[in-house]
């Protein structure tokens, strides 16, 4: 007999066996696909020394490092400004003043709906802004508006009783947000925040369309100057693992912050007060 769950029925022996077969079949298909891709790469001589020799040149290595540095610079600026803008817009969305709340809502919905590339091109072409500020501004407006909704949803996800209890103790709204709601909402918001930062990191590659010399632009420049067939494949095989590694590093950082937050004294569970114990007076 199987026990029921609130969301689904726990699979029985036959269902588990069927799922195991599905897993084995999926693994075989994925391995076959990878094998086919490797066969094509070897068949087109993508691993020959001739095609990888250019990456030994110091000039190409410096070009890639310079492009990587420009990518990290654009991402760092966009990440900091997006978090700041998202916080500001989230505070506006949660404001008790209706005009502030409406204005923040219009800004968030407008820039969330606007494609990132359109904003970057508009700032670069129409406003005649330099490539780096144009790229950072476009990424900030889009990701900041998305993060504003993440922050607002995270704060609203905290149990309503927490807010009411804090107000009942005489705490002001600023203190309720700073000491009660936000610390509890951080854990729920952290995965979504990191996911959006990963999106911002990948979107820095749009900078090559406005001549910003970032990592992808450097790879495109290298591939266009190689004189053998399919020059983009070795370049992609060099650039892709670095992009993936940076995204994985962000995910690891999120996990580290989450574990550190759980060990923080501010977020540790507080033992229930004994009967007759007076609550501390709120200043």
Explain how this protein is built.
The radius of gyration is 25 Å and the shape is globular. It has 10 helices and no strands. Residues about 1-5 and about 265-283 have low confidence and may be disordered. It has about 280 residues and is mainly α.
Describe the structure concisely for a colleague.
With 283 residues, this protein is mainly alpha-helical. It has ten helices and no strands.
- Which descriptor suits the 3D outline? globular
Which residues sit in consecutive blocks of at least 5 with pLDDT less than 50? 1-7, 267-283
Structural class: mainly alpha
* Element pattern in H and E: HHHHHHHHHH
Described by its quaternary structure, the protein is single chain
Number of strands: 0
What is the helix tally?
10
The span between the termini is 57 Å
Give the integer mean of the pLDDT values.
83
Helix content: over 70%
The major beta sheet can be summarized as:
none
Q: What is the rounded Rg?
A: 25 Å
Beta-strand content: under 5%
Helix-strand layout with pairing:
Elements: H1 13-43, H2 49-52, H3 58-93, H4 98-113, H5 116-126, H6 131-157, H7 160-168, H8 173-203, H9 215-224, H10 232-263
Features:
283 residues; mainly alpha; 10 helices; 0% strand; globular; disordered N terminus
């Amino acid at each position: 007999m199987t026990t029921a769950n609130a969301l689904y029925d726990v699979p029985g022996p036959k269902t588990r066996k069927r799922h195991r077969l599905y897993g084995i079949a999926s693994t075989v298909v994925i391995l076959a696909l990878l094998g086919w891709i490797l066969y094509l790469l070897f068949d087109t001589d993508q691993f020959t020394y001739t095609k990888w020799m250019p990456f030994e040149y110091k000039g190409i290595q410096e070009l890639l490092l310079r492009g990587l540095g420009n990518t990290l610079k654009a991402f760092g600026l966009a990440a900091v400004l997006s978090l700041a803008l998202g916080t500001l817009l989230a505070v506006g969305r949660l404001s008790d003043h209706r005009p502030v709340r409406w204005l923040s809502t219009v800004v968030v919905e407008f820039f969330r709906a606007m494609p990132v590339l359109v904003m970057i091109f508009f700032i670069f072409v129409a406003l005649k802004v330099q490539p780096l500020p144009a790229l950072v501004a476009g990424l900030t407006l889009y990701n900041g508006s998305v993060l504003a909704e993440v922050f607002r949803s995270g704060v609203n996800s905290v149990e309503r009783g927490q807010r009411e209890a804090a107000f009942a103790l005489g705490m002001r709204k600023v203190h309720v947000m700073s000491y009660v709601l936000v610390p509890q909402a951080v854990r729920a918001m952290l995965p979504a925040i990191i996911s959006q930062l990963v999106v911002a990191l990948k979107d820095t590659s749009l900078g090559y369309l406005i001549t910003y010399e970032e990592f992808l632009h450097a790879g495109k420049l290298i591939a266009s100057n190689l004189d053998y067939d399919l020059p983009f494949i070795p370049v992609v095989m060099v650039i892709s693992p670095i992009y993936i590694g940076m995204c994985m590093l962000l995910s690891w950082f999120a996990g580290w912050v989450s574990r550190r937050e759980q060990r923080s004294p501010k977020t540790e569970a507080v033992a229930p007060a004994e009967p007759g114990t007076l609550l501390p007076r709120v200043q």
